[in-house]
Amino acid sequence: MKFAQILTVASGSLHTALALPSTLPRQQTCTSPKLRKEWSQATAGERSSYIQAVLCLATKPSTLGLPSPATVYDDFAWAHATLNNEIHGVPAFLPWHRYFVHVYEDALHDCGYTGNALYWDWAADSGAPASADVWDPTTGFGGNGNQTTPSQFGTVCVLDGPFTVLNPVYWNSDVRPHCLQRSFAEPSGDPPVEMFGFNYTPDIVAQVSSETVYDQFNNQLENGPHAAVHQGVAGGFRGLGDLGPVSSPNDPIFFLHHTNVDRIWWQWQQQDPQTRTFAYGGSIGENGPTADLDDILPMQGLAPDSVVREYMDVNSAHLCYTY
User: Fold this and answer.
1) Which residues form the signal peptide (predicted)?
2) Three-class SS of residue 251?
3) How far apart are the C-alpha atoms of 82 and 90, rounded to whole Å?
4) Where are the alpha helices (DSSP H) in the chain?
5) Selection from 310, 314, 282 nearest residue 296 by Cα
6) Which residues contact 179 (CB under 8 A, 6 or more apart)?
7) Domain total in the chain
8) Residue 299: inside a domain, yes or no?
9) Is residue 190 one of the residues assigned to a domain?
């Protein structure tokens, strides 16, 4: 199953609420929000500590009771894959992934990382995404996988950087241990750009962000730039990179990607915080129920299940971050 399949509108159990009135009480606010930085703006020490914490996750046994050799690192890919229909193609796409990144950040802290979640601003790098700082083999996540036989599973192994030692256990929801795989999409378009960079340019992000209704913004962001980055890193619909299937948290770049998606949502909320902080809506499936701020955000045991309302405002006491 390739990433394209997660874009199908789901009929999951999550419960369009209209944008709530500006009189809605805000949650308790934080006083000293943590700053989430772009990868290239983080210090060398922050980047090194982040990478070491990711590697640490891959040494700790699964906390979900997944069979050995699954680790905490694999817990995130498994949870994301098994919840596929409830977290993609639905209004809860953005708040669920905001919670998921938050849980991952806590896991990195358990491995000694003292910084905050970091993001990759792929729009800024869209003209030449394969040359972005984040792929540096020494200070970043390593680059492309082996392209000698790019159509065979298990052959597009990442060739350099700190994550060549990773061996993800899951491919979608199946137990299928393999090397960490990437397959950067070849140049296409006019002028040609690798990794589908023409689909997540600053102009594209601005166009998506011009949507004034949450449901339209959510759909445009998920099915546009967000999906293009997944496909671009994984090799398109034919690719076998780990960012392609629904077990996409196999690739640690997933969390920098989704932190950037969260940043774009935050920027959209900041355009009109009185109205948009708790703006939420849409239907679940073509003829499904309407979304509600009290719909459940399931975490498959990674963390307690929560509700959408709790992950709408980054200034809430339990999130307390900014960009």
Assistant:
1) 1-19
2) coil
3) 15
4) 44-57, 72-82, 84-87, 93-110, 202-209, 214-221, 227-234, 253-270, 273-276
5) 310
6) 154, 157, 158, 164, 166, 167
7) 1
8) yes
9) yes
Asked if omega into 69 is within 30° of 0 (cis), the reply is yes
- Give the C-alpha separation, 163 to 225, whole Å: 25
Say how far apart CA 183 and CA 236 lie, in whole Å. 8
Q: Find, among 194, 263, 262, 199, the residue nearest to 234 by Cα.
A: 194
Q: Please indicate, yes or no, if residue 28 is contained in any of the structural domains.
A: no
Of 254, 272, 318, nearest to 309 by C-alpha is 318
The residue type of 206 is A
Give the residue numbers spanning the domain of 281: 3-10+41-322
Can you tell me the distance from the alpha carbon of 8 to that of 101, in angstroms, rounded to the nearest whole number? 22
Instruction: Please state the pTM of the whole predicted model.
Output: 0.91
DSSP symbol at 146: P
Distance CA 194, CA 306 (A): 39
Amino acid at 303: A
Spell out the per-residue pLDDT of the chain, length 323, in tens: 333 333 333 333 333 333 333 334 445 779 999 999 999 999 999 999 999 999 999 999 999 999 999 999 999 999 999 999 999 999 999 999 999 999 999 999 999 999 999 999 999 999 999 999 999 999 999 999 999 987 889 999 999 999 999 999 999 999 999 999 999 999 999 999 999 999 999 999 999 999 999 999 999 999 999 999 999 999 986 678 999 999 999 999 999 999 999 999 999 999 999 999 999 999 887 777 899 999 999 999 999 999 999 999 999 999 999 99
**Is residue 15 a part of any domain in this protein?**
no
Residue with tokens 């997540």, as numbered in its chain: 200
SS3 145: strand
